[in-house]
Amino acid sequence: MAKIVVTGGLGYIGSHTVVELVNAGYDPIIIDDLSNSQAGILDQLTKIIGFKPTFYQFDLCDEKKLKEFTEKESDIEGIIHFAAFKAVGESVQKPLKYYHNNLLSLTNLLSAYSGKDISFVFSSSCTVYGQPDVLPVDENAPVKPAQSPYGNTKQIAEEILKDAIASGDAKKVIALRYFNPVGAHETALIGELPIGVPQNLVPFITQTAIGKRNKITVFGDDYNTKDGSCVRDYIHVVDLAKAHVAALKLMESNYFAGYDVFNLGTGNGNTVLEIIIAFENATGVKLNYEIGPRRSGDVEQVWGDVTKSAKELNWKAELGIDTMMASAWAWEQYLSKNPL
Ligand code: WQD
Predict the structure, then answer these.
(1) Number of the ligand 1 atom closest to the C-alpha atom of 275
(2) What is the pLDDT of residue 296?
(3) Which of 42, 69, 218, 334 shows its CA 20 to 30 Å from the CA of 141?
(4) Phi, psi of 269 (to 5 degrees)
(5) Please, are residues 45 and 35 in contact by the beta-carbon 8 Å criterion?
(6) Phi, psi (deg, nearest 5) at residue 294
(7) What span, in angstroms and rounded, lies between the C-alpha atoms of 206 and 283?
(8) C-beta 70 within 6 A of ligand 1
């Protein structure tokens, strides 16, 4: 079975991707420094896939540890690089922490595998588009000045990857631009595990529904949208995970070489208020929310043109908003009875 390194493999998207890699017959090798994930996810993954995946705990910024890893695991065929800090707000407060971690981990990885004919999948983000001029936004849209150091690290990382292809350090790279990943695995054994107060909308919704938070604040209802609240393209994390397998398959095909980038969204936009209603309808749980001031750094509306992903990545999202909300709720209920 082809060995695929999954950095950040105990994180939210990483863990769901480990499951889909096993389902597709790959052998995932997890690297995670547990700075933004929990070791308990390894046991949860074991329950889902039926065996304990190979796991190495170290920081990719530690070149010595990474060298030891590459000597131990020498027959790697691909890398899926999730490991990065991703809190937009925190990146504004601590930009150097974000530039150091997110960029050094990438350049260390590329150096460690320089010249090797392996597939490299990079976890990018729709944040690189900023507020697009045209919606839905496609992969040829101009990358706009980042709205946060987090978004900037994703833009810079994409440039580093293109330069690595040009120099021959990297041979095959696909950058996947995520829209808004939400939801949880159908077993409710893995899902989003925000540390502290959730920054993102859906975990805040589920924690309010379970009683951990008093109410949700909708950050602004005076935007130029159908109900005044911001629009995003919410995509089920399992659909997102399957796209990483599709990216590996594309790079295994003989005609792929060099660098490419794909949007991972549903192609539909929903407002914050629509998500709140969708959650209530999917779960029967009434949510307590209020309208508050806008959150700085928020773009008004963004959703993806996913034509290229359907045509060239041979992938499209299949799970709807109801399943996203119901699975996120099932996971929150599981967590309340089985704290990790
Ligand atoms: C969604 C909408 C908020 C919380 C970020 C990253 C992006 C990606 C996904 C990594 C916005 C509103 C939120 C709340 C609210 N991360 N909201 N009340 O900011 O679109 O994207 O996470 O890949 O790169 O930028 O996601 O879930 O924080 O916000 O009204 O308590 O919900 O204003 O309109 P965001 P989000």
Answers:
(1) 32
(2) 84
(3) 218
(4) -115, 140
(5) no
(6) -60, 155
(7) 10
(8) no
Q: Is 251 in the pocket of ligand 1 (CB under 6 A)?
A: no
- On the CB side of 165, how many CA atoms lie within 13 Å of its CA? 17
User: What Rg value do the Cα atoms of the chain yield, rounded?
Assistant: 19
How much is the pTM?
Answer: 0.97
Q: Given 3.40.50.920, 3.40.50.720, 3.30.1330.10, 3.30.70.890, which CATH number is that of 3-183+233-266+305-318? A: 3.40.50.720
- Site to probe by mutation for ligand 1, drawn from 295, 300, 301, 324 as the one with most ligand atoms within 8 Å of Cβ, is 295
Asked if residues 169 and 111 have their Cβ atoms less than 8 Å apart, the reply is yes
**Domain ranges across the chain:** 3-183+233-266+305-318
Could you confirm whether 150 is annotated as catalytic?
Answer: yes
| Residue 273 predicted with pLDDT over 90 | yes
Q: Output the CA 295–ligand 1 centroid distance in Å.
A: 10
Confidence at 254, pLDDT banded by 50, 70, 90: confident
Closest atom of ligand 1 to CA, residue 229 = 34
Here the contacts of 162-169 (C-beta below 8 Å, separation 24 or greater) are 162/259, 164/110, 165/258, 165/259, 168/115, 169/110, 169/111, 169/114, 169/115
